[in-house]
Amino acid sequence: MKKSLLLLLVFVSTTITAIAQEFELGEVTIEELKEESNEIDPSASAAILYKTGTTYFDIDKNGNWLIVTDVSVRLKIYNKDGYDYATVEVPFYTGSSRSQRESVIFKEAWTYNLENGKAEKSKLKKEGKFTEEINDIWSVEKITLPAVKEGSVIEYRYIKTSPYIRTIPTWYFQEEIPINSIQYTLEIPQYFVYNRILSPYMPVEEDVNTERITKEYSSNGRKAGYGQVNTTIRSQMGSVSYYIHRKTYTVRNVSPLKDESFVDNIDNYRSYVKHELAKTSFPNEFEKNYATDWTTVVKSIYNDENFGRELNKSDYFEDDIKNVLKNNKSGDDAVTAIYNYVRDRMTYNDKYGYECRKGVEEAYEDKTGNAAEINLMLVAMLRYAGFNANPVLLSTRDNGHVAFVNRNEFNYVVAGLESQDNVLFLDATTKQGAPGLLPVRALNIIGRVIRDNLSSEQVSLIPSIISIKNNTILATIDEQGNIEGQVRRQYFDYNAFMFRMAYGNIDEEEYLIKQEKRLDDIEISDYTVENRKENYNEPVVEKFSFVGDGLADVVADKIYISPMLFFSMTENPFKLEERNYPVDFVFPSQDKHTINLNIPEGYVIESIPSPMDVMIEGNVCTFTFKIGSRGNMIQVLVSENVNVSRINPEYYSQLKDFYSTIVKKQGEKIVLKKA
């Protein structure tokens, strides 16, 4: 047994060493330049041949801890679609202080091409380097490699340095293109303990060892960054010796990550390793906890002057809220009145965050603010009115899931009105919003409600109410196959919210042009809409007349008509053979269609599609198709129900078959025959 274990350790160590030895920048081979496709995915436009990264801790000249990540890449471009990979972007945080800035430096960058049987390399030129500002706190370092063409191999190396030691940069083992070999090494000093999440989406080899090192610096003391991480290292000689715990992760033959419809954020399902500082333990100092449990995290957030203190302020709004609540408004009416007041008064500046940037008072005066300023203001006003309101921390969909106990993956906050049975969520950043409807960016599975007594609780952000869309059509078809009629559409709850977000401010003529094209090029007239820009608690109602000359086929003495006219689903949205991540519908929904079709005089019904009821196991999704006739009238009743917001991947094959069945059924025709 011991011998087998020893042989396994030797094999793993040898494999990792071999990878490190076989990849050196500047050693591109003729075989790599001749390669015409990738074995893992022959259709790929580019592939990463090798990628290595090392993250380690360093000490600057003043004794401050730094996190340094050194990355080297060799990448093959197979065709013109892969040219985009010759532009490399690395974002970095600039913050508000020069001492708190991250930095990125590209150390090497070359393009290799095969010329007359030999490798010819072109060095990155000065004009190929750019630094671009994303916003007031983020920038990106960018390079564009020269002389790129089909068959090129590019190499580059960059070093990113950060003073923010609470979060080690996330390392991804998977990209949108295949990866032949990828290796990541992390070296953590003995003073730091980090929580770790290693995603389960692919097997990763791990190797662990420990080494003692010595670092020199010029100051006897230092305070290390990222807010509350304050420690001191002292040494008479201006140096410190400590052990580092080194872990190396290795993966080979990585298939590309392919996006598909109904994915919340594809990065959630990419293979990765994440770390969050849990505690520090320095010589001659008490151990400090940062993210060992939720109590510690909540305490650090609530005691932050840009969070908890802002909730305790009320002088700036008291007179206004008294006026809002006059006429004895109470209960739901009071909640809606306060919510509408904040929503209508404030303008969201599109800045995420759960901490205030300029503070609630200044934001209230300016009538503009970030997510924290607007929604913490809302919490304070609801509390002032006597409601049990608390902030709810969450991570937005584009920020990814919250993986473990930490504060740094949260980047947003909403208000939560707690009752005995549930939590009513409110977000006043969206002009089209209503109580209970969070913007889609905030619907990211779970949040954490935190209270002024420093207790907290995980809450589900997944909508449970079924949002309905009703389509009612009364139409007539003539002998030439032309169809005209009237449509009434009702959008409820999230369907109404999504309609207002998409079309609330769009020009009506522009909207109708888009609708005509989407609905099989019908011609719309007499259009009216209710509750598009007001009464946000009410459904949106559209009414219009239409004429369509391509909705039926006339062949000899027969007319062929789709029973759902221009509402038919013609393509299955799910195309992958298998899927390893959930299907995200955002919210449960019901789409109902009631279609009454008058057939022309002199025609009879030769055939109609048969009725159908389809269900996915557990009533996850249902589809009902009913059709009947009376005299010259055909009535079609269709209901498609998605009863959950998310469907686990084990249901994927059933879901794919479910939609294939819908497409096939809706593709069947009503056949009319001249009598």
UniProtKB/TrEMBL annotation:
Annotated signal peptide: 1-20
Gene3D superfamilies membership: 2.60.120.1130, 2.60.40.3140, 3.10.620.30
- Domain DUF3857 span(s) in chain numbering: 71-191
SUPFAM superfamilies noted in UniProt: Cysteine proteinases
Give residue ranges for domain Transglutaminase-like.
Answer: 326-400
Q: Looking at the record's lineage, which domain of life comes first?
A: Bacteria
Give the keywords, sorted. Signal
The protein's name is DUF3857 domain-containing protein
